[in-house]
């Protein structure tokens, strides 16, 4: 839908028919390339969905290029993996006999052998590091889509060694914008996944169906298809995957031919009674896995639609009506198949589409806890210790990671193999993030960040309302200040009456003339004494605290 | 008499009967409905209503010096109130009121109002913003404090707020500001101690059944969802709404008077049973640089404002009496500054210094405190009304005589000791407030202290910090900053020999939990 149509619709909204209409209107728009306006609004929409928060600097950067180039650049992932997490903890409580003891602080633990004493510390280090990557994300989709894959191929870090969790994370980054089929194959043999879903104890004499089931139900096909794979298919897949083991010293997986089920496996009519020929010897595991991948991915329509639906709900909105299904989901699924399971062409088509930029698809996404926490810090430009100051940096990132966990998104530890409920639970989906427990805590987080901040070891992270305001274009004009700040922080604008009220009651201390604010701001700029600073500080603090307490702040 | 005893003594004899057809025995003794129906039980807890006059009120045209009328008239030839229009105040022939303020005049003459002359502070600020912040933070002119005196008072009385609130001892908001945002007045050392009635929590809209429309779009749909959750989490929304709904009849208020509208809500909530300690309302437009009066100097913009102020206060007092809660309420007006003695050529007055404050209520000591400002025979543009009373002395009187706080709390709230003024009757103190110190997860003893004090705090384990902050919120000392393997109670000594006497805050932070303890170091 074009912005103009939408405005016309809004005008009609006063009529009774519109009010009585219970179903929320969706849109007919599809994958036709978007060629509408390219302003701050559209860039902010794109960035808030593909990154965590839209920093004004980033928005302005992408405003300087075309929409096509902006999307291309956002979808271009760095070739190199980020520097691994480091040992940020002292040897207190680590015995000298422990392998971690000799590891100097500041060096990475990911290549070190299992440490009984320090594995929990490493887990905190890993999670803080991950939060730090999100806080410091480059101008591309990498962090957001990494988290998508962590949710899609969910594992829980408490179930395995932390270095396995790190390697799992690394794998998700390696394939994040690659080939889905190859990704599924790789995750099947991932050490953390082998441990998490019991693949490592799946042997010919005692098959374990855990991974075989989730591979089909949660990772590729879904359980909605009619017809669908059968219980017997689950058993057969388990037999195909027998013999894969974990080497706890090298932290790698390997194939043990002696524990592999060498008989042929014939599948149900859903798979056209396909038979995977039983193999023997060292290559049996790989060869049968290849056959299994081919068989599952031969269900092109089912697999492509399943993944595309999940991507759509992660990046656009959770409600999918018949028009969206026909105009967006199915065409994207065809793109995925036509491109031999490459992910990038799908996301390129989605993010360049009329549908993505449709005004009806803007501002309707409930911020995930990570969106809220990382996005707020980035949009306000909260200053963190440099990554090289790793002890303090990890402390700050760890605080934020803990807070996201309080808000029910504990990265590294989703609730179960299905991932976070907000991405699959009918009918609430994203609304699950917001309840009577989490909503006050969300407000408490933003209140804390602007009132006192978080302090540890003399280092503080805090929202600095004066610094944020200084970066606006025309902060001496209270009207422009409010407009610009809201443009950065909100997707649904406040009414002009509300803005006028906030200006008067907060920025003008109930005076009527704008120049009172202008004079105060200019006095601070010209002579930043404590007195002049305090005058603008208290008012800006109250203004932004108010903004963050409104429901609008929780949408992106 | 404690409030609970009072209830027991009063309600029991008629407990077997029915009030308005509702059998009393079926309801708890503490039921606000019973209290409301009895019309007596609510006559205990004290309430302060602050009326802020934004813009800088011209005190010389509100409280007029009759004994030096000639000098007054000479300084303000274009705006002086004609002598024979000045309203007389009984017993004080030297001082009169602006002609429109018949309401306040009546209250004064009935012994329900008192006027404190020339209230201000040393080295006054002439900036609206800075002066407002000084009045609200109760700081010195050259001192910067990030929180407000009401917030500090409420923090002392209701430790740990908002964690653990509402609770059995305090079901209601601690402070309510009628307006969209709470001011610096209500800001406590760590959190805002008050709520506003059109703030995100939308109390005002709840009472009036108004809800901002959300567009019929997916975004609007989700906005509606989040707002609905937000409403459920508004811990005080229900009590405010039911308090308001409990009052169906009020004495008339003037129309077209926004201050009267606000005070009407306050009266309704007080009668409705809220034990909220402090309310704040405001009226703007006092920045009368030009056109303060018309040719008839008894009329004009300032006269309109004073009429609204006076009428609203009078209607409020009449309503409180009608509702039977007049003995619970003390009111006070204030403005960030007064205006110059000499008027300017555009029939207005420029930013000035001290100005009178009006206190009203059943328990004020009636009269005029202080002398008329001295007006120079030939006033110049820079002449100001010098202050006779520090505004914090009025705060001190309220804290001591109305809220019955001890001297330690008084000094902690006002950041030093201020002499109180005889503006509130000495028999008005009421200390039937619940002791809420059991909610503390950080305490110190002794308090006040001279050189060191022992801080006891609880942690749930994990990273915990206890930081000492000054009144500007700056961390001046780190007492605790470490991980605790086990949850429990710990103690640490704060040795403050090298710090100046004054107010310090010990802030405990443990995960998402934080609490602030106010400590007073004395010489």
Overall body shape of chain A: globular
Query: What characterizes the major β-sheet of chain B?
Result: 9 strands, mixed
Structural class of chain B: alpha/beta
Note the overall shape of chain B: globular
Total strand segments of chain A: 6
Per CATH, the class of the largest domain in chain B reads Alpha Beta
Q: Which oligomerization state do the chains in this entry correspond to?
A: heterodimer
CATH topological fold name of the largest domain in chain B: Alkaline Phosphatase, subunit A
Query: Fraction of residues of chain A in helices?
Result: 40-55%
Identify low-pLDDT runs of chain A.
1-22
Count of discrete alpha- or pi-helical segments spanning 4 or more residues of chain B = 13
Major sheet size, sense and barrel closure of chain A: 2 strands, antiparallel
Low-confidence stretches of chain B: 1-44, 199-204, 206-211
Compute the average pLDDT of chain A: 93
- The end-to-end distance of chain B, rounded to whole angstroms, is 36 Å
Distance between the termini of chain A: 19 Å
Largest interface: A-B, 73 and 53 residues
* Count of individual beta strands of chain B: 21
